[in-house]
What does this fold into?
Amino acid sequence: MAIQLNHTIVPARDARASAIFLTDILGLREPVRFGPFWTVTLDNGVTLDYQDSNEAMPIEHYAFLVSESEFDSIFARIKQRSLEYWADPMHSRPKQINRNDGGRGLYWNDPNGHYLEIITRPYGSGS
It folds into this structure.
C-alpha cells in the first residue's frame, strides 16, 4: 500500500462553522459529524477534521490543488464574500493572485486565522 495522508485535525473556535466555511468556499459536500469532529472530505479522500478548541491555536496552512475552472469558481466565491486575499503567504500582495509555475494561486484566511491556499499547479512543476 502506498503511504497516503488520511486525515488531519484542524483546531477551531467553532468547528461546525469553520467546516461549513471551507465547504462553501471550495464547493464541497457539507461537513459530516464524526465523534467530536466536523469532517470535510476532499476529493482525494483526505479529511480535515475540525474540532472545537478554546486553547491558544497555532496558525496552520492548508493548500488545495485545484483545476483552472475550480480556481475560477472558488475565486468568485471569495470575492462574493468580500474576503481579503493575497498572492503570497506573507500577505504583502493584497488583492492579487500569483502565477507561480505557470499556474494561478492565492491565499485567504479562515475564521480562525488559518492560511488557506488554492493553486492550479504544484510548486516546482513548471515555468
Remarks:
- DSSP finds two helices and seven strands in the chain.
- The first strand starts at residue 7 and ends at 12.
